[in-house]
Design goal:
The chain is an alpha/beta fold. It contains 18 helices and 12 strands. It has helices spanning 2-27, 53-58, 64-69, 76-86, 96-109, 127-134, 140-161, 188-198, 203-216, 254-272, 289-294, 313-319, 406-410, 417-429, 436-444, 451-456, 458-466, 470-478, and strands at 34-39, 115-119, 166-170, 219-222, 230-234, 276-280, 325-330, 337-341, 352-356, 369-376, 381-390, 400-405. It has a 6-stranded mixed sheet. The radius of gyration is 24 Å and the shape is globular. The N and C termini lie far apart (85 Å).
């Protein structure tokens, strides 16, 4: 009798414990998907009304809205057209009107965004020329201060619209204190501009970022809750561009080598700590198919294709850490594109999915666009994304709507390395671009109808999507020899 009673008690305790465990499990479901905004190439134009530039230069960044929102100068259009001609600008960048329209659309479409990424080129093209034309008597230090203030203004505009979201941004080739594609490592400019980029980080992360940002514009940050053990590594990879020069106009590869060493160290440490990593920069690694074709590079005759960067080091570093990196975000082309980074000669290694983000700037004749991402916080995998595009290039009477949804259009469950690899494989096999998926890519990669342009070079273009080295691209284009 006693033995039976004890057995019953044990069973009751086990039953209660089981209920408690199940209840705890039920009370703590997996975290819901996280929404994020992916933005790039804002190219904000503070010179839109040249008469206002002296006011902007004299005012603090938080006073710019009042100036920019004020009535335009009577001769604004004529003066801006003359400025564009003087600086040989190829198109118009993002005006105050377009910027505010973009931010309004982002808030309407993704009010609950947990974080925002801006993958470089926050300021307009030909910035130094436009400054010199409008402020001819200014000192060099005043130009640098105006660049910093413009960057502060753009970042502040995003933070003002999304006060609950973390805003992470990378510097692009235009975001420099001494000219396009020019930058000095360990410079006063990088120290000065670091504040708006890292000021919202936690104290511990901000302290570490102060040193790496001042060195090369790089830093590391933990993605916000509910992400766990997930970090974003941000690069100012202007130093790796084939066009890069120091502010003195001289070539120098030392900063690029130091940047790759820092990145590899961060990725190796993440592997040891079992962390999940996103990487963001501005200029993508790999082949530039448009320049390769437009410059008629005889790739099959032994010429190398045009590359975005000066070496393949960044591509190799990223591709060698596919087990750690969940996503790489780049931009620079102003187009909505896919890429895959795969280790050369190692088909069994896990590749890296790379997403290229379309631009807000309409400088290439495109309509502005941004991307709303849906992310699994448990795995840091990009599940889906939607591209939201503008109905016109001006921000005036502009309607913003969905251009396409990745999962619905391409019938994929995630934008993971495996799914992107399979999708690019389908593109490559479809040499005539006849499939529904290929046709969708042709239609959507550029916001505006340029499908005929890409159709003409489709086989050459698709070779660049997963063949990031010159040799691999040549083998795809010409056949292995």
């Amino acid at each position: 009798m006693v033995r039976c009673l004890l057995s019953s008690i044990r069973l009751s305790v086990l039953f209660v414990a089981t209920l408690m465990i199940c209840g705890k499990m039920h009370a703590e479901p997996a975290p819901a998907a996280v929404t994020a905004l992916l933005v790039s190439d804002v190219h904000f134009e503070p010179f839109w009304d040249p008469a206002k530039v002296p006011q902007l230069a004299a005012a603090p960044e938080n006073g710019w809205n009042a100036i920019l929102a004020g009535s335009s100068s009577p001769d604004q259009a004529q003066r801006f057209a003359a400025l564009q001609q003087t600086c040989k600008a190829r198109g118009e960048d993002t005006s105050y009107t377009l910027l505010t329209s973009s931010l309004d659309a982002m808030r309407a479409q993704a009010a609950g965004a947990r974080f925002i990424t801006i993958s470089g080129d926050l300021i307009s093209h030909a910035f130094s020329c436009k400054w010199a034309a409008t402020m001819p008597n200014a000192k060099a230090s005043e130009y640098e201060a105006f660049v910093v203030k413009t960057l502060e203004y753009v970042l502040g505009a995003f933070r003002g619209e999304f006060p609950a979201a973390a805003v992470y941004a990378a510097l692009g080739n235009n975001d420099s204190g001494c000219g396009d594609y020019k930058m000095d490592a360990n410079s006063g400019f990088l120290t000065a501009v670091s504040k708006p980029f890292i000021e919202k980080l936690s104290p511990a992360e901000r302290k570490a970022a102060e040193a790496t940002f001042a060195a090369r514009g790089d830093f590391s940050v933990s993605l916000p809750a509910p992400f766990e053990h997930t970090r974003l590594l941000i690069l100012d990879n202007i130093f790796q561009s084939k066009k890069y020069q120091g502010c003195d106009g001289k070539d120098d590869t030392s900063a690029a080598k130091a940047q790759n060493a820092w990145l590899k160290s961060e990725l190796d440490n993440a592997r040891q700590r079992h962390e999940k990593i996103w990487v963001m920069g501005h200029i993508p690694p790999g082949v530039d198919p448009y320049s390769t074709i437009s410059k008629m590079r005889n790739v099959c005759g032994g010429k190398d294709p045009e590359m975005f960067l000066g070496s393949e080091d960044l591509a190799n570093t990223l591709a060698g850490h596919g087990d750690v990196i969940r996503l790489a975000i780049f931009a620079h082309t102003h187009m909505d594109e896919m890429r895959l980074l795969a280790p050369a000669g190692n088909s069994s290694a896990k590749p890296v999915a790379l997403k290229m983000v379309p631009s807000i700037s309409p400088v290439d004749g495109n309509n502005p666009a941004f991307t709303i991402a849906t992310i699994d916080p448990a795995t840091a995998t990009l599940r889906d994304y939607r591209v939201i595009a503008a109905s016109n290039k001006t921000g005036l009477d502009t309607k913003w709507g969905e251009e396409y949804d990745y999962a619905q259009t391409y019938h994929r469950q995630t934008y993971s390395a495996d799914d992107v690899k399979a999708l690019i494989g389908e593109f490559s096999a479809d040499g005539g671009a006849k499939s529904a998926e290929s046709q969708s890519y042709l239609r959507d990669y550029f916001v505006g109808d340029k499908s005929a342009e890409l159709t003409f070079i489709w086989p050459q273009y698709t070779c660049a999507l997963a063949n990031t080295s010159a040799d691999a691209y040549r083998a795809c284009r010409c056949g292995a020899k």
